[in-house]
Specification:
42% helix; 10 helices; globular; TIM Barrel
Length: 275
């Protein structure tokens, strides 16, 4: 299995606090059947000011430690990216990493309040050739009132990543309900651990794979933890990968622009004038 959302790098965000904890988490992941981990620390301006260069350097150092300890885990780059006015510019300039250098970007919405024009921002990223992978929508405080927004985004080609622990009840009944709904209605493309800690937020994926297999069958469960994430790491386009089992085909029309040009739209326009 491949886990494409994992806060494994030590002392870089709110994940592993030191090397010892990172090694413990890596051992747990490997024992669970995970072979590849995307190290995805937060990029949250003013709180976690990580950059691609720093993340890549931290991955190289941790990979060397894993190899020395005999832990069979391959690390690739990524980031859990929060909304920011400089998002598109940061991706184009190489400051913000995508998953394994692909077209896919982990995009983390604010937890407590729906951001204004979120749909427009997602469409702007897609118009620029980026596939947003929206992280843990089932855990957002505002999912009840905006579930239809995520359905629209999924049908237009954005990807949804559900947290493994959501399906096994680690986050409570409410989150489990919404995680199962995203899965059952065909809008979940990936499962990932979003691991932060060996006990509180463990790097366990197999139990969620089995939960999906019981609901949708083994094939679709493997697509969520193997086929699609492997395709991302290999740089395959979405159309070369299995669609979600019950999802309607994404619209073939280009992404709709936001009703009012936002900051990302203005960045895109300026970038277009420079090229």
């Amino acid at each position: 299995m491949l886990d494409l959302h994992h806060h494994l790098l030590p002392a870089i965000d709110d994940g592993a606090t030191d090397l010892a904890m990172a090694l413990d988490m890596a051992r747990m992941a490997a024992a669970d059947g995970i072979t590849t981990v995307a190290c995805t620390p937060h990029i949250y301006p003013g709180l976690y000011d990580n950059t691609r260069d720093g993340i890549v350097a931290a991955i190289a150092a941790l990979q060397a430690q894993l190899d020395q300890e005999g832990i069979a885990l391959r690390l690739v780059e990524g980031a859990d990216v929060h909304l920011d006015l400089g998002l598109l510019e940061g991706i184009r300039g190489g400051r913000i990493p995508t998953l394994a250098g692909s077209r896919y970007l982990l995009l983390e919405p604010p937890h407590h309040v729906a951001p204004p024009n979120f749909e427009g921002v997602v469409f702007e990223l897609m118009a620029a050739g980026i596939i947003p992978v929206i992280t843990h929508p089932e855990r957002l405080a505002w999912v009840e009132d905006h579930y239809d927004l995520f359905v629209r985004l999924a049908r237009r080609g954005a990807w949804m990543q559900v947290t493994a622990g959501a399906l096994t009840g680690r986050f409570g009944r409410r989150v489990k309900y919404w995680g199962e709904r995203f899965v059952d209605e065909g809008h979940c493309m990936l499962l990932a651990t979003d691991a932060h800690h060996p006990q509180r937020r463990p790097p366990l994926l197999a139990e969620a794979r089995e939960a999906v297999a019981a609901r949708l069958g083994t094939e679709e469960a493997l697509h969520m933890v193997l086929t699609r994430p492997a395709g991302i790491v290999s740089g395959l386009p979405p159309q070369a990968l299995p669609p979600a089992l019950h999802a309607q085909a994404p619209d073939t029309a280009p992404p709709a622009p936001p009703t009012r040009p936002g900051p990302l739209a203005r960045l895109l326009q300026r970038a277009g004038r420079r090229t």
